[in-house]
Amino acid sequence: MGELVRGSRILGTSPKGKVLEITFRGTHEWTHGREMNEYIKENLAEHNPAAVVFNLLEYQYAFGDDVTGLFRASVDLLELKTPDARNFRPVCIIARGTTYASLYDYFKSSRILDAFRIDFVSTLESALERLRERTGEMSLELPTGENDAV
User: Fold this and answer.
1) Domain with 113 in it: what CATH number?
2) Alpha helix ranges (H) inside the chain
3) Rounded Cα–Cα distance for residues 39 and 72 (Å)
4) Mean pLDDT of 1-29
5) For residue 144, is pLDDT > 70?
6) Does the residue 147 lie in any domain?
7) Residue 77: inside a domain, yes or no?
8) What is the DSSP string of 10-52?
9) Model pLDDT for residues 61-111, shown as the tens digit of each residue
10) Containing domain of residue 32, as a range?
């Protein structure tokens, strides 16, 4: 089995809170879905971010529906506990090539793109710009350094 390498770091902050980057590296296998979903869930609980960037630039994905954590991260579970909440956490997925095409096609055909308002981009800079556009007030202070958990 191929190893799933994962990492996370806080990219910056906005008036609404932290911007979390979660990175996955490796070649997709059916066992990765559960690992990815658990790692996403743990990071969301630990950081309660205002926005999430999934960096899949070094992850090779071709097909499968076991990547639900990538779109479930947009649902702000804490906000949903209030009766009038209908908030979605902005999520950007950074990917290229087959990974981009396969995930984008899956998300689009399943109507996940529309329902969860997920953005797909090919660079970190594009992801941050998209998050700024979506929040209308995000001002990031990017840290220097590598992922804190790899």
Assistant:
1) 3.30.750.24
2) 32-47, 69-72, 97-109, 112-116, 124-135
3) 13
4) 87
5) no
6) no
7) yes
8) EEEEETTEEEEEEEEEEE--TTHHHHHHHHHHHHHHHH--SEE
9) 877 666 766 777 777 655 545 444 456 788 899 999 999 998 888 888 878
10) 5-131
Residue 91 lies in a domain: yes
DSSP 8-state class, residue 143 = P
Q: What is the pTM of this model?
A: 0.82
Whether 107 contacts 101, CB under 8 Å: no
Residue 50 to residue 4: CA distance in whole angstroms: 26
Token readout for 145 is 């350094």
Mean pLDDT value across residues 1-26: 87
Q: Among residues 97, 105, 13, 90, which one has the least CA distance to residue 51?
A: 90
**How far is the CA of 32 from the CAs of 27, 29, 40, 82, 138, in angstroms?**
9, 5, 12, 33, 32
Q: pLDDT grade, residue 113 (50/70/90)?
A: confident
The total number of structural domains in the chain stands at 1
* C-beta separation of 41 from 22 below 8 A: no
CB 16 within 8 A of CB 50: yes
Does 149 reside within a domain?
Answer: no
Give the Cβ contact number of residue 55 at 10 Å. Answer: 23
Tokens of 130: 């998209």
